[in-house]
Amino acid sequence: MNFVSRRLVRYSASLKLTLFLFLIFGAGVILWHFTEHELKNWLITIPLLLLAFNLMTALLTNKIFRIHGWLLLFHVGLLLLLLLIGISQVTKLIGSVEVTNGTVYDQSSVQWQQGIFHRNRLDKLQFKLEKFTINYAPSHGTVVRQDTQAYITWLDEEGGVKKGIVGDKVPLKIYGYKLYTTHNKGFAPMFKWQPNQGFPIEGSVHLPAWPEHEFNQVNELQIPNTPYKLWLNLKFFDPIFSTTEPSTFRIPSDFTLIARVEEQRYELQPGGFIEFETGRLEFLGLNTWMGFQIFYDWSLPWMLGAALLALFGLAGHFWKKFAPTPWQESLEEEEKK
After folding, report:
1. Is 5 exposed, middle or buried (0-12, 13-18, 19+ CB in 10 A)?
2. Is-contact 18 51, C-beta < 8 A?
3. Is the distance from CB of 84 to CB of 303 less than 8 angstroms?
4. Taking a C-beta distance cutoff of 8 angstroms, is the pair 50, 58 a contact?
5. CA-wise closest residue to 252 among 264, 240, 269
6. For the whole model, what pTM was predicted?
7. Which of 170, 137, 132, 178 is nearest to 152 (CA)?
8. Is the separation of the CB atoms in 201 and 193 below 8 Å?
9. Which secondary-structure segment (H or E) carries 22?
10. Are 218 and 206 in contact (CB under 8 A)?
């Protein structure tokens, strides 16, 4: 039994197994990009954990690590990195959400990918986008996006109201989640549906991101609890950006919202409305929306520590390997004489 166990441990530490596991890891990374299943992160986690086990058995069985302490330190850091990266794949969350200016974030509109062991607390996130500003600078006949600032109010873990500013590189941390702004933003026509019977409903429709889809500002509106569906198209010729002076993203001053209902076509301005048999749809005006990224990964600071540990061990190993020994120093002094 001991002989079989030793052979298994020796095989687990072999470089041939390491090469095979790297091939498995590469295949898992490729499959990850083409898989939509919620368990797809295991395609990366399992090969990394097997590589960590392979490295751990090598550290326990290879005598060279007992002789070279710096080399051992480097591989311990590498082992920790493999474990942390593998575990983070099944515990992290990456999500995105679009929030209308002046409204509260809606959890139901969040699109996210999370690890199977992530304890989802998105329902506890409660924040409101008060306003946002995006500055642009002219550059060689075009415009370049500068800083983005989103002004947020949110409820902390004690229920108190707080205010802050979120940017592309300046996150807001709520319940462990980091909230960032993204380059996605656009326009949002606002509507009020007044049924003949019942209470009015207000809402907005997010048009495609602007200016990425500058010439395709089209979307559809399904009026709640009715068979009516509107095709919407925003048209404006007001140049928002300037190629000669600094600009700020804003609502155009002159625009028309085209709405089609079956064969009927309407051109709406703020305050305009469409009459239906069961109620009236009023166009309240044009608003904007901002895209946010929601990110959670507890392992990042630990990865940094493990990487620094591995770097420290590697630096010590090469310093010891190439540092001159006393007999080399004596030989150099003799040659100088």
Report:
1. exposed
2. yes
3. yes
4. no
5. 240
6. 0.82
7. 132
8. yes
9. helix 15-33
10. no
What angle (nearest 5°) sits at the alpha carbon of residue 54, between those of residues 89 and 11? 145
Q: Are strands 161-166 and 172-174 parallel, antiparallel or unpaired?
A: unpaired
User: Which DSSP string do the residues of 32-90 spell out, in sequence order?
Assistant: HHT--STTTTHHHHHHHHHHHHHHHHHHHH-THHHH-HHHHHHHHHHHHHHHHHHHHTT
C-beta of residue 191 within 8 angstroms of C-beta of residue 206: no
Radius of gyration, CA atoms only, the chain = 30
Q: Residue 279: helix, strand or coil by DSSP?
A: strand
Helix (H/G/I), strand (E/B), else coil: 272: coil
CA distance linking residue 310 with residue 314, whole number of Å: 6
Distance, CA of 261 to CA of 275 (rounded, Å): 11
Are 311 and 77 spatial neighbours (Cβ–Cβ below 8 Å)? yes
247: Cβ contacts below 8 Å, ≥ 6 apart: 135, 136, 137, 138, 143, 240, 241
Q: What is the pLDDT of residues 43-99, one digit of tens each?
A: 999 999 999 999 999 888 888 887 888 889 999 999 999 999 999 999 999 999 999
Place of tokens 């002004």: 151
Q: How far apart are CA 189 and CA 285, in angstroms?
A: 6
Measured in degrees and rounded to the nearest 5, phi and psi for residue 278 equal -105, 5
H or E segment and range at residue 310: helix 300-322
> For 133-179, what is each residue's pLDDT tens digit?
999 988 777 888 888 999 999 988 777 889 999 998 889 888 889 99
Q: What residues pair up with 100 in beta bridges, in sequence order?
A: 289
Show the beta-strand stretches assigned E in the chain. 93-100, 111-114, 127-139, 142-155, 161-166, 172-174, 177-195, 201-204, 218-222, 229-236, 247-248, 255-261, 264-268, 273-276, 279-296
